[in-house]
Amino acid sequence: MPLLEPKPEALRPGAARSASPDRVLDDRAAGTPEPLRGELSALLGPEKVLWKVSDLVKYASDASPYRFLPQVVVVPEDIDDISAILSYAHGKGREVVFRAAGTSLNGQAQGEDILVDVRHHWTGVEVLDDGAQARIRPGTTVMRANATLARYGRLLGPDPASAIACTIGGVVANNASGMTAGTTRNSYRTVSSLTFVLPSGTVVDTADPTADELLAHAEPRLCEELLALKAEIEADAELTARIRAKYEIKNTNGYRLDAFLDGSTPVEILRGLMVGSEGTFGFISEVVFDTLPLDRKISSALLFFPSLTAAAAAVPRFNEAGAIAVELMDGNTLRASVSVQGVPADWAELPKETAALLVEFRAPDEPGQEAYERAAAAAVKGLDLVAPVASVTNEFTRETKAISGYWKARKAFVTAVGGSRPSGTTLITEDFAVPPSQLADACESLLRLQSEHGFDAAVAGHAAHGNLHFLLAFDAAKPSDVDRYAAFMDDFCRLTVERFDGSLKAEHATGRNIAPFLELEWGPKATELMWRTKQVIDPDGVLAPRIVLDRDPKAHLRGLKTIPEVELIADPCIECGFCEPTCPSEDLTTTPRQRIVLRREMMRQPNGSPVETELLDAYGYDAVDTCAGDSTCKLACPVGIDTGAMMKDFRHQRHSPREERIAALTAKNFKAVEASARLAVAAADRIGDRLLETVTGLARKAVRPDLVPEWLPEIPGAAARKLPRTSRVGASAVYYPACVNRIFGGPEGHRGPSLPQAVVAVSARAGKPVWIPEDVAGTCCATIWHSKGYDEGNAVMANRIVEAAWGWTAGGTLPLVVDASSCTLGIAHEVVPYLTDDNRELHRELTVVDSLVWAADELLPELTILRKTGSAVLHPTCSMQHLGDVEQLRAVAEACAEEVVVPDDAGCCAFAGDRGMLHKELTASATAKEAAEVNSREYDAYLSANRMCEIGMDRATGREYYSVLMELERATRP
Fold first, then answer.
1. DSSP assignment of 651-709, as one string?
2. How confident is the model at residue 681 (pLDDT cuts 50, 70, 90)?
3. pTM score over 0.70
């Protein structure tokens, strides 16, 4: 064991805990039992089988209020693996559930036997017919697909609020729709073809002209029985009319029986049935969508009304005016949204009765936009609008930032309201639809029913389509609360069906939540047809039992998850999964959601239980060590939960007092450390990579992998010992070269000035000279200590840099320009909690400017571009995302190159200072998709603005990345 290996006990929850009734039991501590584990490992390969109890726990939860522990999790790579899993399940009498993003809200992605992760290995977008169609793999997020299609002026029809995280497979399997899809732009209407694997293992490509012939040969009984069901339905005029009527409004409850009416052959029927089947009919391996035009002329307004019913009553006006979206938000939703960055703070003061409509019009051109705006103005006349707080304008706008803010508040409905729920409560998200003409009446009835059952729910929804969502919070550990929820559900379902003839699930699909109420909505005849359809397609019941169909009247109450309190920073988490696609360790170990899920399971366990011990043993590497600490999860989370910060705190908790003292000593003597590091890097050029890799590898084994960096061949040579000469007299800004740029030089093949030389030269050319203080050596942004959780060392350096910067800038009269985005973030924001009161006052007087912003806003307008490179690919860093200066990176690059590309798969490289040298597997995993995209073609320049991230991308791509400011210097050099 390494000398300084941290003890797992350091992360053991400190509070005394009693065993939660829904805890993972002790007999599951060993993980997947034999022979299941061994048989699947032999079948698929051990690397595709996740069997530890920590693996099972992190997959037991999703965005729904349910929690089911699988027996095993498998990660297939291709259709052959899928077929093998299904064949195994048939032979052994086992059950299979598919899970992709885990953003479903009704438990349909949870299983109690074999859970199949189809997020990994199943991504990709192929644009067809110049964007008219797109072939998309099921693990691809909606946002990722739309990013590619946007280049062609197209987009997908379905637009769920969870587009940042939800995947195409789940969208199709649930027939999810969203804000604008309604009944005409959803998956059922816009899917051109599907490729899927039936429970038997038969693969069907509905686009194949011979698909019916092939299916008839492989599955004659299936074809015969599907056509028999079609004939039976079509012979029943009353049933046919009922099916057609049910889909005049949004409806995802049960199976798409209209597939029997719309399809004329078995393959066409199956194509329709697969949409909305929730993984109970087969695995969707590929989808071809018919795409829609991306209308870029947008006019939007957020209109405030005195009550929910008043807002609902106004919806028909905007539908008639041609609005593509009319979104409803009640007072609880609006007030909770203040936790979302950018939402006006005065919304917290809105009266509870207030409601708002987010109305949007989209047009392809200016005349169309003007016509819509006239129609909108006419629709607004005579409405009883209110402005209860100062930020409310009740006006239509074309301003992109304002419109983005409106949508950010609306899309954060579940997470913002869920994040503000009482600690320890479970969140239920309900989703129903009524005819749009009855929306106001439905709102009034819903509010009355909630009050009767003691719920103060939040309401929002796609009002244009009569589709409402509401959230309920209750304590699933209290039987009385569960009984109250059950009574409410009984009354709510009867109200929706018997009074409004509505849909109990409009777009979130049946799942486990509404399965007991399926017959209430559809009646016995149609419901029995659904059971028979399931029997025809999956006669052995292998796929997703108890999802969609369940005869247990209390099935929706089984498996409700408790939410034990965890660390304050993570406690608001509702496990929605929005954070996961941004996480660098997503494909390696755990995601932010899973880090929190694992922590909650520890809290459910009694002190010292076998399950807790196993979880703690795995948590150190899987959660803490392989967290990049980049906090992009905070940006993706609508309520700003920073799991990265929690992991840094856990790192701090694992430090011994001796380690903290050494880290603080390093900060106090950083001038000597910096000089030594530069000398070591210079000496490395003479020693050779192989020997250095061997020496550092041995040191890592002897001491601790998370303390000793591994030497990488991509590490550049040393920076020049002296920085460029500058003068304080006449300087427009103070230039602070980050310590990484004082230690490491540029790319090996780069010819031209160093980064500090380039910044000095290009600033002078623009008539805005900069001054480098002579005493920058020994100072740092403190990120080195902050990222590792060394609080004492962090405080030492944080206070030192602020005191120095205040002096350099003459008390903040000059801006401080920093040439590494992570260091800019550190000095501008991350040091603040560690400052003394006096130094916080000094910090408030500083203006910290990233070099990208300096170049784009201050230098470019004054420079003459003399030459351009042909093409450049950019790597926006996570710090740029936090600082909001990605557009400045693009602006500087576009001044220097004829073509500028930001990869669709660009994300955090996870090099994270030196974490890519501590855990190189983390950077390899985090950059795999971006690197593949970058290396799909050649570029003339590979640009970023952070030296360590550039090294990480060098390693990932085999290219040489360098600062965009060095390219700007070349482009403007006389």
1. HHHH--HHHHHHHHHHHHTHHHHHHHHHHHHHHHHHH-HHHHHHHHHHHHHHS-TTTSP
2. confident
3. yes
